């Protein structure tokens, strides 16, 4: 039996992070405002609230154990906040193109500035042509990915995206955020994972690259590498968390 702790996959700004083919004990819970929690009112949705939400879910499912965190995009920022808030509950972290600076929050910040009607119209427009939306990130996305794209787009209301966008700006743009990140790197092994097409657009500070436990760039992929190459993504995560 593996002695590795359970892995918590933390999804990003939109959709889910259910990793196909990941064999070790893991969970991919919905954040507040998403999936089974989509009816949570926007005023209760923020990055710190997501940390408290995840802590409750982890306690209920696994008890008082340290877990590994894998956070994608905004989920990467949530993973770092979780480790800063509950350092004794985290063993290792894989930050998958997570938010290090406001420059990483271009889209979420723009949605946060929208009115209710503007955000709803944006999401509805994506839902009319989900494959076209997905091809904004994966230019060669095959037609068989359309169902996944539709599921991601239906996973949260526009009000959740607005609330998350505002919180991303508030947290990652805060004066104390860089020091918070450094503190997490000091206490925990943090692995960095990027897609080859989007690595140059990921605003990872030089100090983070120097201090990380390891960095991997998946060839031929972009920001949604778990959609483009799901099996390779799962294997890469497993190898990083094993220290390989």
UniProtKB/TrEMBL annotation:
The protein's name: Alpha/beta fold hydrolase
Keyword match Hydrolase: yes
Annotated keywords: Hydrolase
Record-annotated AB hydrolase-1 domain positions: 7-235
PANTHER family, alphabetized: AB HYDROLASE SUPERFAMILY PROTEIN YCLE (PTHR43798:SF31), MONOACYLGLYCEROL LIPASE (PTHR43798)
SUPFAM superfamilies in UniProt: alpha/beta-Hydrolases
GO molecular function: hydrolase activity
Cellular-component GO terms for this entry: membrane
Native source species: Duganella vulcania
């Amino acid at each position: 039996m593996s002695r590795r702790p359970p892995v918590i996959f933390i999804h990003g700004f939109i959709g889910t992070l259910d990793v196909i083919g990941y064999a070790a004990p893991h969970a991919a819970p919905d954040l507040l405002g998403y999936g089974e929690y989509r009816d949570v009112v926007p005023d209760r949705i923020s990055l710190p609230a997501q940390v408290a939400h995840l802590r409750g879910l982890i306690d209920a499912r696994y008890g008082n154990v340290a877990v590994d965190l894998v956070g994608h995009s905004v989920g990467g920022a949530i993973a770092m906040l979780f480790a800063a808030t509950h350092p004794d509950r985290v063993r290792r972290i894989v930050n998958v193109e997570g938010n290090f600076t406001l420059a990483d929050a271009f889209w979420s910040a723009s949605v946060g500035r929208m009115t209710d009607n503007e955000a709803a119209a944006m999401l509805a427009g994506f839902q009319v042509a989900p494959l076209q939306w997905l091809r904004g990130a994966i230019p060669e996305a095959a037609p068989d990915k359309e169902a996944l794209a539709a599921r991601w787009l239906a996973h949260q209301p526009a009000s959740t995206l607005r609330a998350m966008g505002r919180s991303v700006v508030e947290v990652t743009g805060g004066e104390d955020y860089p020091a918070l990140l450094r503190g997490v790197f000091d206490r925990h092994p943090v692995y960095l994972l990027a897609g080859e097409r989007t690595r140059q657009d990921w605003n990872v500070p030089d100090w983070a690259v120097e201090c990380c436990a390891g960095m991997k760039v998946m060839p031929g992929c972009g920001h949604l590498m778990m959609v483009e190459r799901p099996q390779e993504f799962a294997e890469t995560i497993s190898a990083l968390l094993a220290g390989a």
